[in-house]
Fold this sequence. Notes:
It contains no helices and 11 strands. The protein is mainly β and 118 residues long. The chain is globular. 29% of the residues are buried.
Amino acid sequence: QVRLMESGGGLVQAGGSLSLSCTVYEDITRFYVMGWHRQAPGKERELVARFTGSGATDVADYMKGRATISRDNAKNTIDLQMKNLRPEDTAVYYCNVVSIRQGVREYWGQGTQVTVSS
Length: 118
């Protein structure tokens, strides 16, 4: 089992910025895909941004220009910087990593709440 821990969530006003960080308690270079998803109440979990298997970044259309994903292989962290936040960005944000070493295995953190007030 891979442990992931998110931090940095909180309450922010519309138009504000927030940075999230995910600490992965393993060498993140082992993972094929890693990134952030979110789930708002009553909605399905959706992609926010991720590093693909090729190392490229993939940002959801609704976050383009507002979200930046980064990683620090030395610290085993995956960070998400968000700006110009909107009330509809309110959700629980989850970090996840995907391993393909012994079949496809996906691991998730417990999530961190982001609330954007209008």
